[in-house]
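Design job #97: recover the sequence.
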């Protein structure tokens, strides 16, 4: 990599260090900030992360994708949580991949399988955003949770360059370590929250009051209050403070299962 490229990657690594020390950050905000670091550093059109707390073959716990589409399309995508039928082939191949290595999507698919992602869940893009190229890396935490990182170029914009792939190979392990340090397993009552309820909870955890949550989410004040009452009941708490303390408890902080592959070298950047 050039000196300028190395400098940009180093700056991003420092930013990841700052994210790692933010003890108040929520899971959703964590994924968004990691996607921003990836997209801005690599100069790619689409960067996404998906967390699979029970392994990559299962439905994802959460995902976030930064891409050139409208806010409502991005929100719908980020709310999806399972592999599309079209991407089962990819999910099965990912399960058998060496963790901690960058792989080109065409190398993961059997002949005859379309290289653009479907419009389903957990590995899909909006129908209006067909892919030209994609590379993915999978990382595993010591508690078994896995992080899938993907970078993409849109149809017509060309293949991901060797420079981008090399830079991704240098940066992704640091992104994954930041995730492994900060990501928390959610209490059981949070896992089945519907998207509207999850947005309310995220706002609460960011310190918003009821009126601010209503304004931010577009829900009525009474709807926000109804969500909060359900949270108190399901979490078996009696106050906002106790609810925030329970949600902020990082019961499963961990570290990565380190890969023997060094992604910081150009030769190891691509499978």
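Job complete. Output follows.
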């Amino acid at each position: 990599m050039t000196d300028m490229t190395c400098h940009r990657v180093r700056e991003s690594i420092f930013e990841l260090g700052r994210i790692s020390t933010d003890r108040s950050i929520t899971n959703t905000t964590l994924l968004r900030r990691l996607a921003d670091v990836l997209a801005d550093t690599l100069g790619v059109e689409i960067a996404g992360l998906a967390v699979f707390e029970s392994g990559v073959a299962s439905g994802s716990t959460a995902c976030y994708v930064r891409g050139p589409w409208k806010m409502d399309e991005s929100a719908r995508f980020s709310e999806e949580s399972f592999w599309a039928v079209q991407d089962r082939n990819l999910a099965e191949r990912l399960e058998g991949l060496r963790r901690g290595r960058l792989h080109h999507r065409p190398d993961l698919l059997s002949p005859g399988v379309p290289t653009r992602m479907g419009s389903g869940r957990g590995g899909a893009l909006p129908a209006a955003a067909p892919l030209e190229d994609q590379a993915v890396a999978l990382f595993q935490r010591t508690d078994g949770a896995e992080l899938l990182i993907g970078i993409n170029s849109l149809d017509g914009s060309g293949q991901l360059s060797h420079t981008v792939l090399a830079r991704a190979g240098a940066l992704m392990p640091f992104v994954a370590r930041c995730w492994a340090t900060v990501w928390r397993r959610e209490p059981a009552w949070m896992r089945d929250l519907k998207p509207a309820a999850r947005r309310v909870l995220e706002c609460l955890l960011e310190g918003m009051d009821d009126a601010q949550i209503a304004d931010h989410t577009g829900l009525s004040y009474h709807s926000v209050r109804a969500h909060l009452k359900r949270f108190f009941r399901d979490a078996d708490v009696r106050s906002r403070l106790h609810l925030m303390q329970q949600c902020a408890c990082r019961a499963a902080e961990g570290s990565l299962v380190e890969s023997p592959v060094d992604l910081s070298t150009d030769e190891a950047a691509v499978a």
